[in-house]
Structure formats: C-alpha cells, structure tokens
Specification:
single chain, mainly beta, 0% helix
Length: 98
C-alpha cells in the first residue's frame, strides 16, 4: 500500500500565481505552477531525490524559485530556477543537509 501524497504550496506575494510541490510516490516530487486567476495548473518538472519545500521560496512576481534539494550519496545544493522548472540559473553546492 502506498502512502498518501504530500502537498505544499508557496504563493507569490505580488502575482496571482503559486508553486505547488507534490511529493509521492516515494522520493519523487512534482513542481507545479498554479495560476490563481484561472485556477489552472501546469506541471513543470519531476525530481527524484530529497526536496525540501520548507527551504524554498518564490520571487514576489512568481517567476523565480529558490530551492534546496539533495541526492544523498552524491550532493546537496541550493539553486534559483524559473518556476515551475528546476534547471538552475544559479547554483550553490552545499555538501550536507544544512
């Protein structure tokens, strides 16, 4: 039996948009753009590894996402990307969970 999916959302302060993180199954996380005006969703990217939505934030205009993710045994990093995608525009390797 699979566990329930976990959902976390971050709202943009100055735009009618949000980013939703849907975790599950297992260590897979989907990054989804939510247009609050039209109530529509756009799936951006799936990530396989550890993703930390409480260490993420969205720019006030909703265009950029800063996130912390890890593939333990390999590396962890903080990156800035264009929401809802995870391709890094800026990248900082951390090397640990903190």
């Amino acid at each position: 039996m699979q566990g329930a999916a976990r959902i976390h959302a971050i709202l943009a302060r100055e735009a009618a948009t949000a980013v939703v993180f849907r975790r599950g199954p297992s260590k897979r996380t989907a990054v989804i753009e939510w247009n609050l005006k039209t109530d529509t969703f756009k799936v951006g990217q799936w990530f396989y590894g550890s993703f930390y939505p409480y260490r993420c934030d969205l720019s006030p205009d909703g265009r950029h996402l800063v996130y912390f993710a890890a593939k333990y045994g390999r590396n962890s990093w903080t990156a800035v990307s264009r929401a809802p995608y995870l391709k890094a525009l800026a990248l900082w390797f951390n090397g640990s969970g903190w």
